[in-house]
Design goal:
The protein is mostly helical. Among the domains are: 31 residues; 63 residues. α1 runs parallel beside α3, α1 runs antiparallel to α4 and α2 packs antiparallel against α3. Pfam families: Myosin_tail_1 (PF01576).
């Protein structure tokens, strides 16, 4: 019994000690569970706060995604504008190429015109030499006329001693002399006028030659300037086109990268949504099942590790966004360079505008000069037409003089025939006198010497009269031949005057054609000036559009910088 009591006491003490130890262990386990429960509640609160921050991050990322979509749309619009601008630059380049080809064609036309002007100058020189030759022939004819006038005066002096009919011929010859003298004076006046006109034509030829050379030099300089300007504009447009192509490629690359980032952000957003749902499920499981606290704690630890991974992903995304910001900064620098290029293009365009303005003023001055030349040429044409009319009147007068000379020739021929008849009559009288002389000799044989001497003296007188009549007949024949030669010369002179009139008419036609060509050139110059002004306005409008696009790009870059700063501040606040 005592043994049993002792065993009971031992078991009691053992049980008490074991129970106390057990209760202490249970208390410690209870405290541990309470601590773990408190830790789990803190973890739940942390996960709730993280879920709230993730929800805010989700909303912010959705806003950023929307902004990025807007930026993508703007980038697409900018790419479309760049495509449009590239097409416009292609059109402008094609227009400048066409303008260069037109300038080449104008240069060839100017060279052809210079060659034609040189040929016309050579022709005018030939005509001038022909006019000089004609002047020499007119001088020789003047000398011949003076010699003929002196011969005619001598003939008139010789025939003044003849009969009354030759007196009438003398009067007619004197009237012819006065008319020929007046004609000679008129011819001398026309010669002096022709000489002055030839000198004036020579001076005008020299002036025209100088003006043509100067115009050719100016055209060459203008074409060289246009070539240099067009080459500079083509180079600048080519560089601008290359920069636009590079910016377009950069924009497309940025667009593709933004699309990839957008897809990654959508994937991350879906992951974060799934993770938030899992965290909420885990929170409900932790609240409902305290027994599985350790398991949920392990899940919370795993969720924390996932959160760390997400934080690392967010940091990587932040790095990507920083890289995008760097790319946007590079794009901003490119747009800044594009703006500078546009400014240089604006300066070049302003220089080209000044050049076009100077070309326009030079073309207007050329137009005014051509108009003054046109007025002068029209005045010269009027003078030449008046001279042609005067020459035609002189030709008509020469024809009337030739008709009068022909009538006088007929009169001289009548007088010569009359003299021939008188000669025949005198020969008959001589024969009669010879017969009478024979009879007188017979009578002398029969009668006195005095009658013989009288008859001999009478015979000598008659012989002298016959010789004088023969000389007058020969002189009359010479005068008739001279008149015939004079008539031929006058007819030749009338033909030459007609040729001169025709040549002057051709010259008038050529001058009128030149006047028309000058008018056409002036109209073409006005059209070219108008085309240059329209092209200048077009280029100026394109430059204004480029400046507006550069300003828009700069504002977009500033907005992106502000967004990146806001996103950086939000991340700092979230951390």
């Amino acid at each position: 019994m005592s043994k049993a009591n002792s065993e009971v006491a031992q078991w009691r003490t053992k049980y008490e000690t074991d129970a106390i130890q057990r209760t202490e262990e249970l208390e410690e386990a209870k405290k541990k569970l309470a601590q773990r429960l408190q830790d789990a509640e803190e973890t739940i609160e942390a996960t709730n706060s993280k879920c709230a921050s993730l929800e805010k991050t989700k909303q912010r990322l959705q806003g950023e995604v929307e902004d990025l979509m807007i930026d993508v749309e703007r980038a697409n619009a900018l790419a479309a504008n760049l495509d449009k601008k590239q097409r416009n630059f292609d059109k402008v380049l094609a227009e400048w190429k066409q303008k260069y080809e037109e300038g080449q064609a104008e240069l060839e036309g100017a060279q052809k015109e210079a060659r034609s002007m040189s040929t016309e100058l050579f022709k005018m020189k030939n005509s001038y030499e022909e006019a000089l030759d004609h002047l020499e022939t007119l001088k020789r004819e003047n000398k011949n006329l003076q010699q003929e006038i002196s011969d005619l005066t001598e003939q008139i002096g010789e025939t003044g001693k003849s009969i009354h009919e030759l007196e009438k011929a003398k009067k007619t010859v004197e009237t012819e002399k006065s008319e020929i003298q007046t004609a000679l004076e008129e011819a001398e006046g026309t010669l002096e006028h022709e000489e002055s006109k030839i000198l004036r034509v020579q001076l005008e030829l020299n002036q025209i030659k100088g003006e043509v050379d100067r115009k050719i030099a100016e055209k060459d300089e203008e074409m060289e300037q246009i070539k240099r300007n067009s080459q500079r504009v083509v180079d600048s447009m080519q560089s601008t086109l290359d920069s636009e192509v590079r910016s377009r490629n950069d924009a497309l690359r940025v667009k593709k990268k933004m699309e990839g980032d957008l897809n990654e952000m959508e994937i991350q957003l879906s992951h974060s949504n799934r993770q938030a749902a899992e965290a909420q499920k885990q929170l409900r499981n932790v609240q409902g099942q305290l027994k599985d606290a350790q398991l949920h704690l392990d899940d919370a630890v795993r969720v924390a590790e996932d959160m760390k991974e997400q934080a690392a992903m967010v940091e990587r995304r932040n790095g990507l966004m920083v890289a995008e910001i760097e790319e946007l900064r590079v794009a901003l620098e490119q747009t800044e360079r594009g703006r500078k290029v546009a400014e240089t293009e604006l300066v070049d365009a302003s220089e080209r505008v000044g050049l076009l303005h100077s070309q326009n003023t030079s073309l207007l001055n050329t137009k005014k000069k051509l108009e003054t030349d046109l007025v002068q040429v029209q005045g010269e044409v009027d003078d030449i037409v008046q001279e042609a009319r005067n020459a035609e009147e002189k030709a008509k007068k020469a024809i009337t003089d030739a008709a009068m000379m022909a009538e006088e020739l007929k009169k001289e021929q009548d007088t010569s025939s009359h003299l021939e008849r008188m000669k025949k009559n005198l020969e008959v009288t001589v024969k009669d006198l010879q017969h009478r002389l024979d009879e007188a000799e017979n009578l002398a044989m029969k009668g006195g010497k005095k009658q013989l001497q009288k008859l001999e003296s009478r015979v000598r007188e008659l012989e002298t009269e016959v010789e004088a009549e023969q000389r007058r007949g020969v002189d009359a024949v010479k005068g008739v031949r001279k008149y015939e030669r004079r008539v031929k010369e006058l007819t030749y002179q009338t033909e030459e005057d007609k040729k001169n009139v025709n040549r002057l008419q051709d010259l008038v036609d050529k001058l009128q054609m030149k006047v028309k060509a000058y008018k056409r050139h002036s109209e073409e110059a006005e059209e070219a000036a108008n085309q240059h002004m329209s092209k200048f306005r077009k280029v100026q409008h394109e430059l204004e559009e480029a400046e507006e696009r550069a300003d828009i790009a700069e504002t977009q870059v500033n907005k992106l910088r502000a967004k990146t700063r806001d996103s950086g501040k939000g991340k700092e606040v979230a951390e």
